[in-house]
Amino acid sequence: MRLNESSPEEVELIPEGNLAREDMTEFQAWLDRALQTLRRTIVLNFKGVSTISSSAIGKILHFKKTCDELGRRLVIRNCGAEMLQLLKMIKFDALIDIEPGNGEDGG
């Protein structure tokens, strides 16, 4: 996982591989780091994410609530076709902005 402070307004969290239940403590630590940057927009760049667990979905939903309370914007970017289909199937796109990306880091 990487954190990229891509602009004065935006920080990008770049997880890779599987967002699995076993990795939730680390994932939460990275989410907390993203909040500490004080950037207005936090982007979850899913370019390298192949699978996501229900635990990760729960963490993201809780993180979205925290972002809303702090006046921050949470965006998911660069989902692969299968991941995008999954997120739309569970109506995640109704809760969190999902932006198409060009498939390159920095979106």
How is this structure best described in words?
Residues 103-107 have low confidence and may be disordered. The chain is globular. The chain contains three helices and seven strands; from the N terminus they run E-E-E-H-E-E-H-E-H-E. The chain has one domain (2-99): 2-Layer Sandwich (Transcription Regulator spoIIAA), CATH 3.30.750. With 107 residues, the protein is α/β, with parallel strands linked by helices. Strand 1 and strand 2 form a beta hairpin. The relative contact order is 0.19. It starts with a strand and ends in an 8-residue tail after the last strand. The strands form two sheets. Strands 1-2-4-6-7 form a five-stranded mixed β-sheet. The protein has a two-stranded parallel sheet with strand order 3-5.
Give the helices and strands, then pairings.
Layout: E1 2-4, E2 10-14, E3 16-19, H1 24-36, E4 41-45, E5 48-52, H2 54-69, E6 73-77, H3 81-89, E7 97-99
Parallel strand pairs: 2-4, 3-5, 4-6, 6-7
Antiparallel strand pairs: 1-2
Helix pairs in contact: 1-2
Q: What's the total helix number? A: 3
Pairing-aware structural class of the strands and helices?
alpha/beta
How many domains would you count in the coordinates? 1
**Percentage of helical residues?**
25-40%
**What is the CA–CA distance across the termini?**
16 Å
Relevant CATH superfamily? STAS domain
Quaternary state reads single chain
The poorly predicted ranges are: 103-107
Q: What CATH architecture would you give?
A: 2-Layer Sandwich
Sheet of most strands: 5 strands, mixed
Number of strands: 7
Helices and strands, in order, run as EEEHEEHEHE
Radius of gyration: 12 Å
- CATH fold assignment: Transcription Regulator spoIIAA
What would the principal axes of the Cα set say about the shape?
globular
Mean pLDDT: 90
CATH class descriptor name: Alpha Beta
Q: How much strand?
A: 25-35%
> In what order do the strands lie side by side in the largest sheet?
1-2-4-6-7
